[in-house]
Amino acid sequence: MSAVNTPLPEAVFDVRDLRLEIKGRCLLDVPSLTVWQGERVALIGPNGAGKSSLLKVLGGFAGASQGRVTVLGREVTGAGPNAMDAAQWRALHAEIGQVRQGLHLVSRLSALENVALGALARPGAIPLWRSWLRCYPESLLREARQALADLGLEDRMDMRADRLSGGQRQKVSLARLRLQRPKLLLADEPTSALDPAAALQACDALAALADDATLLTVVHDTELLPRLADRVIGLKEGRLVFDVPLQTLSPDLLKNLYETGDPADGCPCNPRTNLPLALPLRPRGFPASADRCTA
Amino acid sequence: MQPLATFGTRPGLPWARLGFFTLVLAYAVLVLACLLTLLAAGDLSWGRAPWQNLLKTVSEFAQPSFLDLWWGPERLEYRSDDGTLLRVENRQQVEAQFLAGLGRATWTTFQIATLGSLLAAVMALPLGLLAARNLNAPAWASRTASTLLDTLRAVHTLVFGLVLVGIVGLGPTAGILAISLHSTGTYGKLYAESLETLDMAAVDAVRATGASPSQVFFSAVWPSVLPQFVSNHLYVWEFNIRDSTILGLIGAGGLGLLISEAVSLFQWSRLATVILVVIALVMAFDALSRRIRKALL
What we know:
The complex is a heterodimer.
Chain A: H1 2-5, E1 11-22, E2 25-36, E3 40-44, H2 51-59, E4 66-71, E5 74-75, H3 86-95, E6 96-99, H4 111-116, H5 128-133, H6 138-150, H7 166-180, E7 184-188, H8 196-209, E8 214-218, H9 225-228, E9 231-236, E10 239-245, H10 251-258, H11 263-266, H12 288-294
Parallel strand pairs in A: 3-8, 3-9, 6-7, 7-8
Antiparallel strand pairs in A: 1-2, 1-4, 4-5, 9-10
Helix pairs in contact in A: 6-7, 7-8
Chain B: H1 13-41, H2 50-61, H3 68-71, E1 76-79, E2 85-89, H4 91-131, H5 139-154, H6 157-168, H7 172-196, H8 200-207, H9 213-247, H10 255-264, H11 268-296
Antiparallel strand pairs in B: 1-2
């Protein structure tokens, strides 16, 4: 969408000959992958396909065994003299917004304060001594209040994070991202802890956040794809199976992606409920999934 | 309902049970060894007249000396065996003086406990931070800190007190230092444990925004552990109020001095008064600290 509008797209991240091995098992083997600024990309694939691992490598939370990964112009896989120092990592992390599977807020702080935490590393947003005392400037608090209000949490601002419901916590973490103003958003199953209605709201909020950023999401529920992506990448056993625009994503591609010789491995089930995923997988030529899940 | 697992139906389980059974057996052997060796040495006796002594003690404890303030004889006459009047004392007046001294001693005890606890809480802070396994302090520093904490905790307050009286002389200073040295070990361990229960995922989430280590500490670690630290502080403080009543025994001042006086003069009714004061002090503090802790957590 916005990739088309941008006159000279810039690579947000660029992966060359990436291999990630842990204990002799190959988790990732990606010869080449480039995502351009403003793109909205979804990573799909069966459990254990390496989606989360890829996200970790991009965020710098896991190293690579081989290859070169450049994120926002910085080579995160550099070793020895080329390795990034702590300050460079912090600068990179300030530009990457992360949404993780759990809903990780500081439980004893209020929703508002949790949102304000997003701006800690934003240059000039808050003087260091103020961040130590958690005495945030009024402008920052106004911004945080606005971010929460936009997500419908006006009346929950002063509630402690551990008293919020799962959906509210996820919204707070999204509001925190808004204050962080990242250039790249990495979301690892942002809706895994939410009920369907809350999942839709969270997706829309995430998509709204990604208006001036690049979004890479790990998606389990293929129903949510249209809200989160215009480019879909299929991963299976650490390898890229396809990389297509959303419009050309066909049921056959999905079927191939989720079909494996090992029934326990490839079943496109919701990992928590162990029920098969709904649309569009089952009706469009994936009838065997139900049998496999219960087997 | 499923049938209960029996031996052989689930591999692995019987062995786990056998291990626990062995542990229980070892414990039983240990207890029996303690008991039987004492019996064999003839050291497990109830004394000559336990019931009589018990009744006597109870009856004396039942008349704590402070009652004399109201009901004590105003002219208590001490006479020698042949009836000569040795001394007359006004029990009410004497008791009033004793109670005034008791009040001062109670305050001294409270001072020792309070200052000693605070000193320990401050000294233990860096050690606890180093010893917490999840904060990734350098291995040598972490090991040194936890060894130091274990050592301090292993030595009893009284032992520290005896040593310190020899160094800084009699008085509350020795008591304060003794309390603080032993409690540093306790605080450090409690701090480290509070830190280890920290939600590291939340800390990582703040770190992932690019915040600097000091910002991560003050924004995610500190607010999460502060209530527990305060709760720990109240707990150890209360413990130290109890502990410092004993410190007077070795000359570190406070209620312990009155206890040792009463015991050596067989003044059980005065001992009863002192013990009542200790109980009241500890209970009052406990009630207060429980309320504060409840409000905090």
